[in-house]
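Sync notes, pocket subgroup
Present: LS, DG
LS reminded everyone that the earlier model was apo-only. Rerun requested with magnesium ion included. Inputs:
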Amino acid sequence: MADSGFNTPYRGQEKLIVAFDIGSTQSAVSFMHAYNGSIPTVRMVTRWPGQPSGSGDSKIPTIVAYKNGTPVVCGVEAQDYVADDAYEIAKWFKLHLHPDSMKVSDQPPEYGSSETAQIRIPELPSGVTLMQVYVAFMSYIFKATEDFFAGTTPNGVAIWQRLQHDMVIVMAIPNGWDTQQQEFLKRAAIEAGMVSSDKDADLRIEFISEAEASVHYVLQKSNNQTWLRKGVMFAVTDCGGSTIDSTLYECKSAHPRIILEEVVASECVQAGGVFVDAAAYTTLANRLRGSSHEDKDQILEMIDVFEKKTKRLFDGTQNVNTIQFGGRTQTDRSYGILNGRISLSREEMASTFDSAIVRTVNSCLKLLRGHKIQHLILVGGFGESPYLRKRLGDVFGRQGTEIVTVEEPTKKAAAEGAAIWYTKQLVIGRAARVNIGIDVCPMYDQRDKGHIARRGLMYIDADGCQRIPGRFEVWITKDFVMNSDFHKVYECRNHYADRPTTLSQFSLPILAWSGDNPTQWVTDPQGALLPKMKLLCRVEGDLTPLLPSLRQRAGPNGTRYWCLDYKVLISFGGTKLKARFQWMEGRSVREGPLSVVPGSAV
Ligand SMILES: Nc1ncnc2c1ncn2[C@@H]1O[C@H](COP(=O)(O)OP(=O)(O)OP(=O)(O)O)[C@@H](O)[C@H]1O
Ligand SMILES: [Mg+2]
């Protein structure tokens, strides 16, 4: 079993993380159970219903068998129903979820053939929605994960029950997906019973791009000390069933921690392994037209063998590539069928790959435009193809780029990498990419040049003091490494001239400064936000429950005013910002929720 262990013991509350990679053709799940003092280890689910015992395969086909609109069975077991007319099969359904921006061809091919990839996405079973298919499949893999965990972890049943309502669910998704697809998956997770509500989904579901997840897998599995140095630029390409996701990274630091930064926006193109199968279908259908084998189902049987064997063996050198689809009695020499076998020539084989390869190369070239990289790391099932590797090697080798592959099969790198990614944040911490802080209003200081320049913005507060807005109070400096429980406590005091009867909404903008030199100000002397100052997020909440804690006070010059004291606790350590209020009511500490509304990405 491919286990990804970490060296640092975990310190903190017991946690369960489950990471899903629902691929177009294959899916896999990984998980990690951490408790205080344990060495976190990411494991894959390697036993699925219907799998021959001991096969240890971590991947299952992403298919659901339906009968009269009802899901009957999924994954390995559903394969038995593929040829049964009484059942309808939902397959490649992930392609229905791709946004329109991904459905069209991105650009005319610049390299090699000008053929455009065409594929017909199989229809969903009649009367069944895409949401229903996802719910059925997610319920199934979630249940199988629970069973595997319970059966392979000492005391597993009790641990799962104890942690399931707090477990973190990580989902690997294509780079090209945006919030619409994420919302879709959250809804499906609610309906599949993985989380209980919208709020619970926001809190517990994390998304990571398949490419980024793959990077974490590769770094864990490969001997990266030999090539990963500060300043090295490399690309990772996840060649899946339907999409090829590529991301360009620069290594900002290799020691003591690896810090990677995305150099440009990643690329996502539809050119995965199913396009090769689709091209092979067309080739065979053309060849067999008029023969006793022209029937669609017979050709699909041939494609099944082609997909599992012929395609995977092809490295560009074989002149004869056989597809053994039937019994010895099946011979039709005029159509090249001999003893249940049909062969494709080297040229025919190569042409089935052409369109997918052209698009993959174009997508990588687009990503690398203007950048020189030493390494292109290939992961994903289609990335195992010796022919694809060779063709990519031909193009990128000329540019001095080495194609790197990991020795262990990378077909499900995204699933394992997604859990590794989350676990790393727990045990290693995350480096701040920018300076993070807030906008505060200090008392006017007539000796401070910055204050003098902003005199025009000065105002008198309810406590009678002169204040200047726009001062940047830095909470976290760039590159500071935050561990999982890192949080900031912000002490707030709101001033009111008269006793308020209602309290307004609390809203605290959290700002990110991406400039190279530190800044003391958020705004320029005219009050305009500095160009490199961005809104990271806004922490918001209802102050009404704090009304009873209002107190009257006197300002430095005797002005009486009302004030509200409370603390805002913001945790930065995980992958997501979380915040809550804390205030005193009499002698007891009270707490309330705050929501975090994302601002522009930094
Ligand atoms: N050795 C191989 N040679 C060629 N193709 C292969 C090989 N092994 C697997 N494949 C192909 O890889 C594809 C599956 O890869 P993978 O499991 O990474 O995709 P996926 O996660 O289902 O798809 P996506 O990431 O696009 O949603 C299939 O099309 C399969 O035929
Ligand atoms: Mg994939």
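DG: The domain at 431-598 is CATH 2.60.34 (Substrate Binding Domain Of DNAk; Chain A, domain 1).
LS: Residues 104-117 have pLDDT under 50 and may be disordered.
Action: DG to write up.
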